[in-house]
Backbone:
């Protein structure tokens, strides 16, 4: 889908298949993110601070709820387009659904992701959960998301990349701990 919420709907005709595939992958991404949150909490164990852990878990769950809701709105727009293609494109329902998904993802979900990154980085610095450079990088990426997501279209990709780096770091550390010395 294009980043412009006022785009007239050409993506429904041309790129609909790709959007439908992406929407079908959202539940798997959500499940993987839940495993990520669970793995982080498991590694923290008794070192978990109640305040930061609450904000960490709450922001992660809220992020997933908004992701699923936005995906459902886009899915509904696609279904409505299939029902009556010529009527939907110029209707206020199309613009409402498209605008709702845009605002949910580009404003609320991104800001919640930055809160998740800030709390995760704070917890990581205090507990040495991940390397220091990755936690500090989390603060920098969160600042980009918090203040620059509206200006940089690519900023939506930095959160999943950061989660990937944190996951790889945890996996690498776990494998190093398992190797015999």
Residues:
């Amino acid at each position: 889908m294009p980043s412009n919420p006022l785009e007239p709907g050409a993506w429904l005709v041309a790129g609909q298949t790709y959007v439908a595939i992406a929407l079908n992958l959202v539940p798997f991404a959500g499940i993987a993110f839940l495993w990520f949150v669970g793995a982080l909490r498991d590694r923290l164990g008794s070192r978990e601070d109640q305040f930061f852990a609450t904000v960490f878990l709450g922001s992660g769950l809220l992020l997933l709820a908004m992701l699923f809701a936005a995906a459902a709105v886009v899915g509904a727009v696609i279904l409505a387009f299939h029902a009556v293609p010529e009527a939907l494109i110029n209707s206020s329902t199309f613009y409402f659904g498209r605008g709702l998904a845009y605002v949910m993802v580009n404003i609320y979900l991104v800001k919640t992701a930055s809160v998740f990154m800030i709390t995760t980085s704070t917890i990581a610095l205090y507990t040495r959960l991940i390397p220091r450079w990755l936690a500090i990088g989390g603060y920098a990426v969160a600042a980009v998301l918090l203040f620059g997501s509206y200006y940089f279209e690519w900023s939506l990709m930095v959160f999943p990349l950061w989660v990937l780096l944190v996951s790889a770091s945890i996996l690498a550390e776990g494998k190093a701990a398992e190797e015999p010395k």
Summary: The helical segments are 10-14, 16-44, 50-83, 85-88, 92-127, 132-148, 158-178. The mean pLDDT is 82. The CA atoms of residues 21 and 48 lie 37 Å apart.
